[in-house]
Amino acid sequence: MRPFLILNMTLLITLAAPLCEAREPAKSTQAYKAVGSLSHNAHAKSVNRNVVRLHLPAKRPLQAGVHDGHRTTNSRVVARARQLVGIPYRRGGTSVSSGFDCSGLLVYLFRTEAGMKVPRTTGEMIQSSGLRIDRDELKPGDAVFFNRNGRGQTSHVGLYIGNNQFIHAPSSGERVRLDSLADGYWQRSFTTARRFNG
After folding, report:
1. Between residues 78 and 38, which one has the greater pLDDT?
2. Whole-prediction pTM value?
């Protein structure tokens, strides 16, 4: 009877072992899948969180004049004019590659930096619908006009950049440069100013 019991026990263990082995991998595979699924979901959430964070706009304090369109375009016009100091004068020129004459410089600046079309010649600029400005009301971005040493017809224009200074393309053989309205020659030659932007 005892050997028969041992034989039954051995047979039972032998038959049960493959079933246990067959179940174990299935359990571990399911557990692996569950863990993998959890880690994948957690990873996806963290990635999504990062994506959202990356696309949030930066919060900056509002600055005075930030919504003032003409003010910002005038700032760009003035900044670009400063970059062009040193470009050669060329009669009829309206580009960096060809050089500039006095009115061509302003045509280029207002077209490229403010998206505006201003008249091509000094005379047309004066006759245009630009707002007439007195000297004590000048703001950066205004066009300033001159005659020759206080005599004759107004024939020259520059861009006022603030602090009593302006940038212009003077004449043949010279280059775009910065000058002061306080200089005696320019004080005598100043005739009028126009505001095209604002």
Report:
1. 78
2. 0.66
Q: What is the pLDDT of residues 150-180, one digit of tens each?
A: 999 999 999 999 999 999 999 999 999 999 9
**Structural domain count of the chain:** 1
Residue with tokens 């003032």: 68
Residue reference for tokens 């082995």: 21
Domain assignment present for residue 31? The answer is no
- CATH number for the domain spanning 164: value is 3.90.1720.10
Give the DSSP per-residue string, 139-179: -TT-EEEEEETTEEEEEEEEEEEETTEEEE--STT-B-EEE
Residue 28, CA distances (Å) to 15, 24, 43, 80, 146 in order: 21, 6, 22, 69, 90
Domain range for 116 is 69-195
Task: List active site positions.
Answer: 102, 156, 168
